[in-house]
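pasting for ref
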Amino acid sequence: MDPPVESYPAPGTLDDALGFELLEASSDRVRARFAAEKRVQQPFGLVHGGAYMALAESMASVATFMAVAGDGNIAVGQANDNHFFRPVTEGFVHADGTPIHRGRTSWVWDVRFTDDEDRLCATSRVTIAVRPT
């Protein structure tokens, strides 16, 4: 498995608190993961839907920012639509995202979440607003 990107997440951020690891980020693909530990679980021991949503928005924002920063822009979350198919209770949640729209003022990403057995657990469609700094 690829090692995480060392400069991510920034200490003290939500991504840090939830244990997110960024594995790859470019304008064409973004990959990340987090452990299905107690800190990301709801009371029944399943990974909380909010953890999926937070990772999807974070990874899409980072990858979009990397692509638009050279033009003096920032990237911030605008919308996040999620669907959950299979619970995860242990191991890692793996995320793989690809852009489906790269516009001047917004990017849209599809993110697929799988478990350690590569079974589809959730999907997210994330819209990232691109704004001047």
